[in-house]
Write a structure and sequence with these properties.
Elements (H helix, E strand, L loop, with lengths): L10 H10 L13 H11 L7 H9 L11
Length: 71
């Protein structure tokens, strides 16, 4: 997922991210991170719509490890 549409010199965005305690990444997330797991899960299952339960499973580390109705 590219951030090519985001101006890296956008000081308003940079400030907002600093306030939120975040930063804009220019590389993909680590595969073992929750976001990385969601990306891998979605890429392997293009017909599955990601929902809140998928996010919860990614956060607790069980995404793709438990039986899924949508697999």
């Amino acid at each position: 997922m590219s951030n090519h549409h985001v101006d890296p010199d956008d000081t308003d965005l940079t400030f907002a991210l600093q306030i939120a305690g975040a930063e804009l990444a220019d590389t993909p997330p680590a595969p073992d991170s929750p976001l990385g797991q969601l990306r891998l899960f979605a890429a392997a299952r293009p017909g599955v719509k990601l929902e809140a339960d998928h996010v919860r499973q990614a956060i607790d580390g069980s995404l793709g490890k438990l039986p899924q109705n949508d697999l």
